[in-house]
Specification:
This protein is mainly α and 391 residues long. The chain has helices at residues 3-8, 13-33, 35-41, 47-68, 74-96, 118-136, 144-161, 166-182, 187-209, 221-232, 241-253, 277-310, 314-338, 357-390, and strands at 98-100, 103-109, 114-117. It is globular, with a radius of gyration of 22 Å.
Length: 391
């Protein structure tokens, strides 16, 4: 990257490359995957969803650029305000939100004709808040008080997301547990938390498997039960239509794929542009395309680990790692669902799957990571220049 470009696009150049690559892959995949949706919803206007996705992506990249120019320390203060705003919005969503795929996950924005997925906002600011709280309390990090206070906030957010979006709630909870571990919370408390979480999840699975859901059509409970039965092979061999079509897409893609725009399974897969976009990528670009996408998120993890090592402050390290882990874990779960090794979840791939608020908030997350790397680089340059100036 030239010096002029480095001055404009500050921070880790590899993360900038990852953002650009994911954005381009997403644009191509969404344009191909939304063909059937365009004919059923937009009278054959195949450019509609392409332009919509690109528009939200550009808005997200605009916020990414702004965020990467901000000293990441300011996000510590912002997290306090916006976390509680997010919690309020989650409550409002459960009460009066709009339904998508039998789940009340979004708030309609009056006059704009678009919806706002509040869990995306809550996830971002919860990670920021945890990074702040842990970094501020390193002197007494072994105390039960610190663990209790942060766990209370985590359970509020996860509890408000879970009723209508269990998969996102699990991603958020897993990310928070990872941050607590990296933040040096007493392992005894973490073991208690892990044991309690496993016990609660086991009870939930057992109850769902033995629950009669015939009269619960308007809730998420029948969906959860069906997914567990399919994954555990307790559905009488019926299997999941979604995963069957996804496996066909993956299998027929081969090594190099069918080529851009030549997917067949996009006509059969439910939500090929979001939940199963990895299957479409595998079908059109083959195992090579799928491996490229995996490699990009592995590279993101590696670059963020370098940021953690170089960061002189706990807040920056926890912030970058938490946001990176959340997005990467979500992406890998989506990929695992597509290839049939995980149950259907409804999670998307950041910057790749079609979306609105998810694109914007994932872009902000990348911007915050770049802000951490930029601040670290600038601080290191100042340290090198000071001895020279003193001489």
């Amino acid at each position: 990257m030239s010096r002029r470009l480095q001055h404009i696009f500050r921070g880790d150049p590899w993360i900038w490359a990852i953002v650009i690559a994911l954005s381009l892959i997403g644009i191509l995949a969404v344009y191909s995957a939304t063909g059937t949706l365009a004919f059923s919803k937009q009278g054959g206007n195949t450019e509609f969803y392409f332009l919509r996705h690109t528009g939200f992506l550009l808005i997200g990249l605009f916020f990414l650029y702004l965020c990467h120019l901000i000293n990441y320390q300011y996000f510590s203060r912002l997290s306090q305000l916006f976390l509680w705003i997010s919690i309020g919005l989650l409550v409002v969503t459960l009460a009066v939100g709009s339904e998508i795929n039998n789940a009340t996950r979004v708030l309609p924005i009056p006059g704009l004709g678009i919806t706002f997925q509040t869990s995306d906002m809550a996830k971002l600011f919860l990670i920021m808040y945890i990074a702040r709280y842990l970094s501020k309390n390193q002197d007494e990090i072994d105390s039960f008080k610190v663990f209790r206070n942060i766990l209370f906030v985590i359970l509020i957010v996860v509890g408000l997301i879970a009723p209508e979006n269990m998969s996102t709630a699990l991603v958020v909870f897993t990310t928070c547990c990872m941050l607590l571990f990296i933040g040096r919370i007493n392992t005894k408390y973490l073991a208690m938390l892990a044991g309690g979480g496993i016990l609660m999840f086991t009870i939930l699975v057992v109850v769902l498997l033995n629950l009669n859901t015939d009269n619960m059509g308007s809730t998420r409970i029948p969906t959860w039960k069906k997914r567990i039965e399919v994954f555990m092979g307790k559905d009488g061999g019926e299997g999941s239509y979604q995963q069957l079509q996804s496996k066909i897409a993956v299998a027929t893609g081969g090594i190099l794929g069918k080529g851009p725009g030549n997917s067949t399974q996009r006509n059969y897969l439910p939500h090929p542009y979001s939940d199963f976009i990895y299957a479409i990528i595998m079908e059109e670009y083959g195992w090579m395309g799928g491996a490229l996408l995996v490699g990009l998120f592995l590279l993101l993890i590696y670059r963020c680990l370098r940021i953690v090592i170089q960061s002189p402050r706990a807040f920056g390290a926890l912030l970058a790692l938490g946001l990176c882990f959340s997005m990467s874990f979500q992406a890998f779960v989506n990929m695992g669902v597509a290839v049939g090794i995980l149950p259907v979840t409804g999670l998307t791939i950041p910057l790749v799957s079609m979306g609105g608020t998810s694109l914007v908030f994932n872009s902000i997350a990348f911007g915050v990571i770049l802000a951490v790397s930029r601040t670290i680089e600038e601080d290191r340059k100042k340290e090198k220049e000071e001895p020279v100036a003193a001489a």
